[in-house]
Write a structure and sequence with these properties.
The structure holds two protein chains of two kinds.
Chain A: H1 5-36, E1 39-40, E2 50-51, H2 55-61, H3 64-96, H4 102-114, H5 117-127, H6 133-141, H7 155-182, H8 187-195, H9 200-211, H10 213-228, H11 232-237, H12 249-259, H13 263-293
Antiparallel strand pairs in A: 1-2
Chain B: H1 5-33, H2 57-64, H3 66-99, H4 105-114, H5 124-133, H6 144-164, H7 168-176, H8 181-192, H9 194-210, H10 213-218, H11 227-232, H12 243-263, H13 265-274
Classes of the chains: A mainly alpha, B mainly alpha.
């Protein structure tokens, strides 16, 4: 259709509020961030920033603490993403195969997802306390250790708690997404496979998994982004302690900016995270597409 | 699928066992919130308080503090305004992108989607600088526009899908009757895309209700805080954390979410799955 002046004005009127808000509060900060990452931009020198090229990027990449935070984030993502997906899919398949209270189970398994990160983190912190419920259970009820485990006082202890929380909180989302995907796999495929004498495992590998491949990719991309977004749980459970051993990339970025006043450093770090995520997303899509053809 | 009764029973048992593990932390939170505060540091810890020990003193304390009532009101205000404003601006963006061809259209949409992969927290430094310049530090106006901008990409993406499913003939019929673009937007697109708008709104409500890093950065006045910041604020004030207060406030802050979620469960699932399943 042809736009007359009045139509153009109305289209503009509809676009403008969204574009203005998005432009000021998202696009401008992204550009500003990119700009800052090339400057020596400290809390003390807010007025005289100095252009230093890629120096901030070099500093970030050679920083031992950044490497620890980056490794923690990668480990967190590598463990929590497959675990959530596998458990979520398992629960989805179980719920899919029962005939009563499906919705009841679906709602109940979803509860951790709607529990806020702050609350969930504090509950886990309390349960994993050295004098907490879990240690009492481990030492005095099932006797697997004789001494209370100091979960929150070591790098991998603290990360384990954060990862358990991430998995616990993520199962419900995966369940709902996979439950919907399972409805799209044609039942006839299972029936004819049964006639051919295929077992449950064969049906799962040859029918279910290929049938929900699109959803697996979707979940993989979303959860990988989610893994790099981890912030509130480690911030509240360990606060990065001991030392900076349980820092993840975002808590480290925040610490450098707001406790150390190194804004240029934080900006460069933010861009490195964004680039890593973009590369991962592209790789994941490629990987799934190749499987498609092969 | 034909299942034998025995295997059905096993599946129910596995589901129930899993469910116990999944909701255990939440039950523990509730049970801790009704224990007397003195009992919280005793060892061995108990999962449930004794029946005669049950007390609502933690709740009485929380509800008796003016600042927590303020925090509650702030959270409601921030979440409701975020939901309302983002529903309007995202529907308008989605409608225009879905229905009209204009130069830069796919570039614009692509860019909006692209920003979804950047973690929101990474922008916190320039956003803080912006909030300082706009003089919105320590005000809920330092939260709302940022949250709206934050949820625009996902909301626009989802609502666009719903608008595209509305038959174009409906638009054209309205144009024939002399209706303008705005009339089509308000009388055709919005009413018919309602399920989509509802589902993203529930999502956005949750996002605004629980947001922590940004609110924790922008607001440091006790009275102006939102609930997540108030809850985490119990740490570092006292030597001993008052876990009873922490969890009483947590339980109270979960109630609105539960109400929204349970009553809109249908929309919620629709919205979640619309993006993930390709037909």
């Amino acid at each position: 259709m042809k736009f007359n002046a009045k139509s153009r004005l109305q289209i503009l009127l509809l676009l403008l509020p969204g574009l203005v808000v998005f432009g000021i509060f998202t696009v401008y900060p992204i550009i500003r961030l990119f700009w800052m990452s090339f400057f020596k931009w400290d809390f003390g020198s807010f007025l005289d920033q100095e252009f230093i090229g890629f120096e901030n990027y070099r500093t970030v990449l050679s920083d031992e603490n950044f490497r620890i935070a980056f490794t923690n984030t990668i480990v967190y993502t590598l463990i929590t993403v497959p675990a959530q997906m596998a458990l979520g899919l398992l629960v989805a398949m179980l719920i899919n195969s029962i005939s009563h209270v499906k919705i009841g189970f679906r709602v109940a398994y979803y509860l951790p997802v709607i529990t806020s990160w702050v609350i969930a983190s504090l509950v886990f912190k309390y349960v994993f306390n050295t004098e907490g419920l879990l240690n009492y259970f481990l030492t005095n009820v099932i006797h697997v250790t004789s001494q209370n485990v100091r979960w929150l006082d070591s790098r991998w202890g603290g990360m384990t708690v954060a990862m358990l929380l991430g998995i616990w909180k993520g199962i419900g989302w995966n369940m709902v997404v996979f439950l919907a995907a399972l409805q799209t796999v044609p039942l006839e495929l299972y029936e004819s496979a049964s006639l051919d004498g295929a077992g449950s495992m064969q049906k799962f590998l040859n029918i279910t998994l290929p049938g929900i491949r699109g959803t697996i990719l979707f979940a993989l991309v979303m959860l990988t982004i989610g893994g790099f977004n981890v912030y509130t749980s480690t911030k509240l459970i360990t606060g990065g302690k001991p030392g900076h051993d349980t820092e993840v990339v975002l808590t480290w970025m925040y610490y450098k900016a707001f406790s150390n006043g190194k804004f240029g450093y934080s900006a460069a770090l933010s861009f490195i995270i964004a680039i890593v995520l973009a590369i991962l997303a592209v790789l994941q899509f490629r990987l799934m597409q190749n499987k498609d053809e092969g | 699928m034909i299942k034998r009764k025995g295997s059905q029973l096993v599946i129910y048992l596995i589901l129930i066992a899993g469910l116990i593990i999944v909701i255990m932390p939440m039950i523990y939170m509730v049970s801790t919130s009704i224990k007397p505060n003195g009992a919280l540091y005793e060892y061995p810890p108990k999962f449930f308080p004794k029946l005669k020990e049950i007390t609502f003193e933690n709740y009485a304390y929380i509800l008796g503090q003016k600042k927590f009532l303020n925090n509650f009101a702030n959270s409601i205000l921030v979440s409701v305004l975020t939901v309302g404003l983002s529903a309007i601006v995202s529907s308008a963006l989605a409608f225009v992108i879905a229905r009209f061809r204009f130069p830069g259209r796919s570039l614009l949409f692509g860019f909006i989607i692209l920003t979804m992969i950047i973690p929101g927290t990474t922008m916190i430094v320039p956003q803080y600088e912006l909030a300082v310049r706009l003089k919105t530090i320590n005000s809920i106006w330092g939260l709302i526009p940022f949250y709206v901008a934050w949820v625009i990409p996902y909301s626009t993406f989802m609502i666009k899908g719903f608008v595209e499913n509305i038959p174009k003939e409906l638009d054209e019929a309205t144009y024939m009757d002399g209706g303008s673009i705005l009339v089509v937007f308000f009388n055709v697109a919005i009413p018919l895309a309602k399920p989509g708008i509802a589902s993203v709104s529930i999502f956005n409500f949750l996002t605004a209700w629980e947001e922590f890093p940004w609110a924790n950065t922008v607001i440091n006045d006790d009275m102006k805080r939102t609930l997540p910041i108030a809850i985490s604020g119990f740490f570092g004030q006292h030597q001993f954390t008052q876990w009873g207060y922490v969890f009483a406030l947590s339980v109270l802050s979960l109630i609105p979410i539960l109400v929204v979620f349970v009553s809109c469960q249908r929309f919620f699932v629709q919205g979640l799955t619309a993006g993930s399943v390709k037909g």
